[in-house]
Amino acid sequence: MTAKRATWQMAVAVAAALLTAPASAATCITSKGQFNAYKQQLAQQATRSGVGQRGLQALQQAKLSGITWRFESNPASQSSMRYRSPEQFLKSRFSSVNSFVSNAKRRLQQNARLFQSIEQRYGVPGSILVAIWGYETSWGGYTGKTPIVNGAVTLASYCRRHPRFEDDAIAALQLVDRGLINNNSRGGPSGELGHMQFLAGNWVRFAVDGNGDGRADPNNAADALATAANMLRRNGWRGGRSFADGSANFRVLSTWNDSGNYQRAIAYAAGLIDQ
């Protein structure tokens, strides 16, 4: 079978799925066996949102992510659900707070010019960005092994999360259309992308080119850091002001992650990094 014929047959299959899908919004699911039906309904929404052939093909090929489903099926296992002090929260992932802070300071010094330029433009200090970067991926050391489209669509389908993350699933398909990711691109179990583990919708909304090469890539550290700063600023961050617990800037951290444990840990670590 030629590649051209295979592509044509794939397009026909997607069109057939759209014709059989109901006109209403996709219905969330409570069992794995409903996943393919959910994808058919999501395809209709994706088409209305302008997703093209490559994105629709990626959706058709998407598989339910077992790790995402298990994670969402047992919310009590999530560390963010239980109150922890900032020290406990950081130590749940790193050997010690001191090692986290010392590593963060080293990254900050190694990339001083980049962090200074980002703060000058967006008002977000390097200490906040390097703390998020370290917590999310150990400064790019581990960006995840879950296929991004699988994770994003599985998360959107799950009733406990639906429809809050449906826009992120559609955004992941838009990124496939743009050639930024494909079906084999991997990230976090909820479809997170790159160095800072952006949800796809946030990358679509806030992405900027941080290194001046004409392309915003979540797997490029400069792009990811600049985009994180842009996201925080556009959600209300004010440069030169406190980010201590209870401050206006502290509350902006909730737009990055709505876990109070996470917000307190990032602000705490950033304060130590600044010392």
UniProtKB/TrEMBL annotation:
Report the GO molecular function annotations: peptidoglycan lytic transglycosylase activity
Q: Where is the signal peptide?
A: 1-25
* GO biological process, any: peptidoglycan catabolic process
Transglycosylase SLT domain sequence ranges: 34-242
Name the Pfam families on file. Answer: SLT_2
> Has keyword Signal?
yes
* UniProtKB keywords: Signal
Record flagged with keyword Signal: yes
- Taxonomy, superkingdom: Bacteria
In its UniProt entry, what is this protein called? Answer: Membrane-bound lytic murein transglycosylase B
